[in-house]
């Protein structure tokens, strides 16, 4: 393939992705500048291509230019955060990464800058901080008119869940960090809030942040705040640690927090002070951390998603919330609670569920745990007529709750032939994966390492029932 062919491919790729791309040669001449970057920086492509980067970025000193650092010193600048005002007066926020392109002889032959527009996410994060700050400082918050949860809201008397509640109540008497492990939908945030509301910190803020919801550069600003002049367009703004001072900060899905940011969090936990992004002042804080994970800590550490040192610092108190399938005796009390709650909310007069319906609900595995049970009851009540009791045929569970018969692979290879023998083995493996995934196609496909469409084809081929979880 000729050089011009490679260039044509590169141009096609750069013009059809959602990130801005700016490529300069070793001599500083601009060779690629796509439409997305043109719109972000409000510069015409013809005013960039063929010109030296120093001319294009004449307002940026060489020592501050990430492209010049890449060309001169082979420096990679990852996730550089900047905010600027475009020609229409709109504030734009981007996250830029600049990397040198080095050949086999160790020579820099080009530098590439990639810019991602995160303006909407930044606006959302700023709104979150502003609303939380407003809530904390209003009389409404101080008078506790905002919905809060205590241990009385946690329903269940099964032996394993009772042990968890007992441990949570003891945790509320101290201020040590807490790590809560449980599958999605098991009520980890309700437990965290209950611990806070039974503690000496109950009159102070309880704030929560999902660590998977924002990219690293924005999450850092959300947590620690920003200092004016710290980066282009930065303003003085409190982060969640300052807003939650004296109270509790829940970090949901802590393993989704980028690895480097986890080390900064560890330092905060050890030293009890924060430094705003771009700031130089150490700010003392008094915040209790409660963190949650929905995978086993050992697996997260092995897979490089959770720092081992942070794990040990968080797990001073470790709480493992059992899934609903291991709390079968709690299902009926939960059903009764949700029936009463949503019958009142939807102005219905439902008194209960038939015995057969209860049996189906008790035998269901609930891959979505309590949250899934709540949604099932909510759906039934919202669509019910004027009947007093819900019958089993009104239950719309994701799959047939009767276990599917596993295939015993005891056939003789010689009798069946290789193709049929392999089919039987594959069918048995798929059935087991579907059952282990609660009947959901996407989860089973992930477990098997297959594309979702591929698994759907095989399900039809072998006549295996599963839930289409895209609907």
Automatic annotation (TrEMBL):
Keywords: ATP-binding, DNA-binding, Nucleotide-binding, Transcription, Transcription regulation. The keyword Oxidoreductase does not apply. GO terms for biological process: regulation of DNA-templated transcription. Residues 78-130 form the PAC domain. PROSITE patterns: PAC, PAS, SIGMA54_INTERACT_1, SIGMA54_INTERACT_2, SIGMA54_INTERACT_3, SIGMA54_INTERACT_4. Residues 6-78 form the PAS domain. It holds the Pfam family PAS_9. Residues 154-382 form the Sigma-54 factor interaction domain. InterPro entries: AAA+_ATPase, AAA_lid_NorR, Homeodomain-like_sf, HTH_Fis, P-loop_NTPase, PAS, PAS-assoc_C, PAS-like_dom_sf. GO terms for molecular function: ATP binding; sequence-specific DNA binding. SMART domains: AAA. The keyword ATP-binding applies. NCBIfam families: sensory_box. This is Sigma 54-interacting transcriptional regulator. It comes from Sinanaerobacter chloroacetimidivorans.
